[in-house]
Structure formats: C-alpha cells, structure tokens
Amino acid sequence: MLKFDTSNAVPFLPENWLTSRLDALDSARVKLENGSGLGGDYTGWVHLPRDYDKEEFARIQAAAERIRKDSQALVVIGIGGSYLGARAVVELVNSPNFNLTHKNGPAIYFAGNGLSTDAMLEVIDLIKDKDWSINVISKSGTTTEPAVAFRIFKNLLEEKYGKEEARKRIYATTDAHKGALKGLADAEGYEEFVVPDAVGGRYSVLTAVGLLPIACAGVDIVELMAGAEEAMTALTAPGQDNPAWQYAAARHALYTAGKKVEILVGYEPSFRFFGEWWKQLFGETEGKEGKALFPASVEFTADLHSMGQYIQQGERLMLETVVRFEKSRGSMEIPHDPDNVDGLNFLAGKDLSFVAEQAMRGTLLAHVDGGVPNLMVTAPGRDARSVGALIYFFEYACGLSGYLLEINPFDQPGVEAYKNNMYALLGKPGYEDKKAELEARL
Ligand SMILES: O=P(O)(O)OC[C@H]1O[C@H](O)[C@H](O)[C@@H](O)[C@@H]1O
Does pLDDT of 103 surpass 80? Predict the structure, then answer.
C-alpha cells in the first residue's frame, strides 16, 4: 500500500493543520460518497474500481487481444483526459521507450493531442507500412484536435484496408448517448466503449478511456483495477490517519499559508507523463475563481541541474510532493576503476539505486532548508497494482481538495474561452460577429 509522509512539511505547517480541517474533510468525504456536493453528478469515479462494468471490461480485454494480434501499431487519438492517463500508465508501468523496447505487441502512438502538422506527419510516416488500428477517444465527441486527427487517420486506414476492413480496425470510446463521435460510431458500426456519464475526462483513466490502450500495451488491467480498489477501500474511510485526508489537508494548509505552486517530483523518467496527468487532474479541478496551487512537475535528478537552482533559492512560492518508488526493477553495480581519475572509487561496488536514494535524501533536506516544504508519497513499485493505487490516491485527494477550496471540483468552464476564439477565427458558422471583433484586435 502507499505511504504518505508529512514530516518534512511539518516545520512549515501550523500545529492544527490537520485537526482544524477534519470536519471539512469529513464533509468533503460525504459529498464524494453521495454526490451531494457541487458538481456531484460527476462523482462516478469514486466507486468505479469496485463498480465498473464487468461485461465491458471483458470486451476491452478481448479487443486488446485482437489488436495485439492483428496490429503492429495502435494510433490512440484523444486529448486531455482522453489522452494523458493512458500515456501516463503505459510509460510508468512499461517505459517511455515502450515503442522501442516491447516487440510482442503493437507500438502505441498518441495523436490528436495537439494541432502540430509535423507531429502528425511523423506518426503517419511511422505507421504507414505497418498493420495498424485506431482507438479514437472523446467523451464529448466534439473536441477539435482529436476530431481533426480522426478524419485524417480514418481516411488513411480506409485507403489502406478499404472501408469494410477499416471499420473493424476502429475502436471508438465516447459518451453512451450523445456527441458526433457516438453518431459516427453507430453509423459506421465501430466497436464502441463508453465514458460513463458520471465520470469527467480527467477522472476517466480507469474507464475504457485508459484501459483499452493500456491493455494494448500489455499492462495487466486486472491488477491496475485491483490496486485502485484497494486504495478506494482504504481512502474512502474517514479518519485522520487516512493518507488522502492528510495530503489534501497539508496542501490546503500550505496554500492558506501563502504557497502558490505545488511541484510534483519524480525520480524516474517513466514518471514524466504521470506528472502531466496529475497536472490536468489538479489544474482543471482546482484552478478557478482565482484560487489554487499551480500544479507543476519536474524530473530529478535531471532537473536538479536546471530548475534546481530556482527551487533552492528563487521566490519561496512552492511546496514539493515527491513520489518515490521503493524498488528499482533491476540492479546496476558501479564498477571499480584502477585509475580512479574521476575519483568515484568510493562508490565502486555500490548499486546505482543506492546513489539515487542518497541524492533524493540530500535533495529533500536541502530543499527543506531552502524553505520548500516536502510531502512524500511512497509506492511499492511501478507495477500495475501500485500504479492503480497511486492513480486513485491522487484522484480521491484531488476531489477532497476541491471541496476544501470551496469550488466545483468537476467543471472546467475556463477551457471554453480559447475554444470560442479559435472557432470564431476559423470561421465556424454562428461565430461571424465574434470573428470580426477578434480580427480587429489582432
Ligand atoms: O474527451 P473530450 O470530450 O474530447 O475532452 C478532452 C479534454 O478537452 C477539454 O477541453 C477539457 O478541458 C478536458 O477536461 C477534456 O479532458
């Protein structure tokens, strides 16, 4: 199970940081439990690890098996919550070099998560001579980036295989009832998977949204769900020993005390996209009404040689939340060198993970001495079960945090502003007046 440690934040916290929030935490817990708070229609993720649709889960496993047999590449089209969770888990459980290192299943390419022509051309080049399939994912079914990408990849697939065969290679994950993608999937007869009504994009990694691409990457999704369920059982129970309560309370107390930025720190390159997923989770949940910690992420030790300077001595804005994994998968002994020109023989015979551990401990103390409170989450490893628990821990703590901040944790009205401007500038019918107004300003 996960461990959570506040001891390196205590010097920065008022004595009653937890006790003064117990009532608010319990009220947040009840809101998440019953869907009785702001945005309560979107709390379907709370019991998802136990109550998920088992029939659909079996279909996800079967579809993943099929894709693993008939495809050398899978193009996963989606953005935001329809992208980051899958990539986070594929990379964290496997590797950021997944497409180079795993030969017994399809390479996974992510598309539709931006509007870069060059990125799209590159994916097309990488897949064109392979057998490939598409998993198009959009809860709303109307998001511009994935919709544009789907048009392009669908045409390519149809050119390669013909319309009939292409249809069998397209898997659509979308709303159960509405949206353009739902209409298209029904009309074309694609195999469909559902983003449940009560689960918003950033909380959807443990639905078909994440599970199909994750299973295609060979990750054991039964274990992933089991880890999440274990965490759900532990974290939905009230009490001041609850690590999610402690995390939500500590970050809220530090925010109240003036901190503005929370940096998620990882020491594994495979953790990078987990940080991206975490940033959407907290950024979209909390960043509204002029409030909230700004979620950032770094990769140590690499960023200790760049951002480390700012963290140690720049504006005292931030706290750090370090996610650490207890065990490396392999071992790597540091060799003895008779010449010892680099002076490293004092490390000869030691394991690289011992060096990493001391780097982490040293950094922790240096940053605390520099005025940066450190919170620490420890997971047993990067296996599917631990990662399932880690996902649930952050989701649940984020839900609690949103209610402590007294905002609606489950909407994201702010993302519409850029979309409306983009639609107007693109000449979307109905936006004519806005277009004229914006063009005049540019
Ligand atoms: O799954 P979709 O409906 O395509 O949404 C994808 C993403 O885009 C939106 O703009 C939202 O801000 C995100 O919360 C969402 O995850």
Answer: no
For atom 8 of ligand 1, the residue with the nearest CA is: 80
What is the topology classification, in CATH, of domain 3-35+236-404?
Answer: Rossmann fold (3.40.50)
Residues 6+ apart with CB under 8 A from 235: 242, 243, 244, 392, 393, 396, 397
Least confident of 58-62, 156-160, 412-416: 412-416
Whether the Cβ atoms of residue 224 and residue 410 lie closer than 8 Å to each other = no
Per CATH, domain 48-221 is 3.40.50.10490: yes
Residue 84: name the closest of 72, 74, 92 by CA: 92
Out of 140, 199, 408, mutate this one to test ligand 1's pocket (max ligand atoms within 8 Å of CB): namely: 140
In the chain, where does the domain assigned CATH 3.40.50.10490 lie?
3-35+236-404, 48-221
State in Å: Cα 81 to ligand 1 middle. Answer: 6
> Is the beta carbon of 204 within 6 A of some atom in ligand 1?
no
Q: How many Å lie between the centroid of ligand 1 and the Cα of residue 9?
A: 34
Q: Are 310 and 261 in contact (CB under 8 A)?
A: no
Catalytic residue list contains 320: no
Cα–Cα distance, 94 to 104 (Å, whole number): 13
The verdict on whether 419 is a catalytic residue reads: yes
Nearest C-alpha to atom 11 of ligand 1 is from which residue?
80
pTM (2 d.p.): 0.97
420: Cβ contacts below 8 Å, ≥ 6 apart: 431, 434
Backbone angles phi, psi at 87, to 5 degrees: -65, -40
Backbone angles phi, psi at 115, to 5 degrees: -125, 30
Could you tell me the two tokens for 145? 């980036």
Structure tokens at 179: 């949206």
Q: Please give the mean pLDDT across all residues of the chain.
A: 97
CA separation for the pair 406, 246 (Å, rounded): 18
Q: Is 305 a catalytic residue?
A: yes
